[in-house]
UniProtKB/TrEMBL annotation:
<dbReference type="InterPro" id="IPR029068">
    <property type="entry name" value="Glyas_Bleomycin-R_OHBP_Dase"/>
</dbReference>
<dbReference type="Pfam" id="PF18029">
    <property type="entry name" value="Glyoxalase_6"/>
</dbReference>
<dbReference type="GO" id="GO:0008124">
    <property type="term" value="F:4-alpha-hydroxytetrahydrobiopterin dehydratase activity"/>
</dbReference>
<dbReference type="InterPro" id="IPR001533">
    <property type="entry name" value="Pterin_deHydtase"/>
</dbReference>
<dbReference type="GO" id="GO:0006729">
    <property type="term" value="P:tetrahydrobiopterin biosynthetic process"/>
</dbReference>
<dbReference type="Pfam" id="PF01329">
    <property type="entry name" value="Pterin_4a"/>
</dbReference>
<protein>
    <submittedName>
        <fullName>4a-hydroxytetrahydrobiopterin dehydratase</fullName>
    </submittedName>
</protein>
<dbReference type="InterPro" id="IPR041581">
    <property type="entry name" value="Glyoxalase_6"/>
</dbReference>
<feature type="domain" description="Glyoxalase-like">
    <location>
        <begin position="110"/>
        <end position="216"/>
    </location>
</feature>
Length: 222
């Protein structure tokens, strides 16, 4: 059960149960009608995961939904156990007359473009109060919020200086089957497609003033 899963394996194993792969995690949203019902659903999820809950499950409780996230946090990766828990959680929610759905799940990343990643990473780690991601402690690796409340930060290698604009952009990780709709909506709202060379891993879009954002999915990365 501790075998690491590829992105493809994780998606195929859990997609039919309302989960989507996002940035090394499995996520689903469970619509509810009240905060009390959300708490009941979260408690049931913890019971189903049992002793594995603390190391694998995170629940975000709202009055209209519970967002459940699975990951083997000790290694910041997905394992066969996470996929098994996803299937069991789906069945438990159905028993509560609730249906997990991938709608509205997404995750943001902040990307910082840099010529010398190793020289700036310590600054961002300190000023944000971030930590190394488990299993990724190298001088150019991403950094993460220890409370998992703020977006992760990763660093993109630049070849030449680019002083004409801020060297930061947003990454919006969405379920792979929602990416086309998200991109179409952004273009209809006045954006433009800068590049689709790396699709479906990511599309680069920009607003009318050239500020860039990447819409990303897990596909095309294994």
């Amino acid at each position: 059960m501790d075998r690491k899963l590829s992105r493809q394996e994780a998606s195929e194993a859990t997609g039919a149960h309302g989960w989507r792969f996002l940035l090394g995690t499995l996520r689903t949203s469970v619509p509810v009608h009240s905060l009390h019902q959300a708490a009941v659903a979260a408690m049931r999820a913890a019971e189903v995961c049992g002793s594995d809950a603390d190391g694998h499950l995170r629940s975000d409780i709202r009055a209209d939904r519970v967002v459940l996230t699975l990951q083997t946090r000790a290694i910041a990766a997905l394992t066969a156990l996470d996929a098994d828990l996803a299937r069991r959680l789906f069945e438990a929610m159905i028993e509560l007359n609730l249906r997990p759905t991938p709608e509205s799940v997404q995750q943001f990343e902040i990307a910082i473009d840099a010529l010398d990643i190793a020289s700036i990473r310590p600054f961002w780690k300190a000023v944000l109060g971030y930590l190394d991601e488990p299993g990724a402690t190298g001088p150019e690796d991403p950094i993460v919020d220890p409370l998992a409340q703020a977006p992760p930060v990763w660093f993109q290698q630049m070849d030449v200086p680019r002083p004409q604009r801020n060297r930061m952009h947003l990454d919006v990780a969405v379920p792979h089957d929602e990416a086309p709709g998200r991109i179409a909506a952004a273009l209809a709202a006045g954006g433009r497609l800068v590049s689709a060379d790396r699709a479906p891993a990511f599309w680069v879009l920009a607003d009318a003033e050239g500020n860039e954002v990447c819409v990303t999915t897990w596909q095309g990365r294994d």
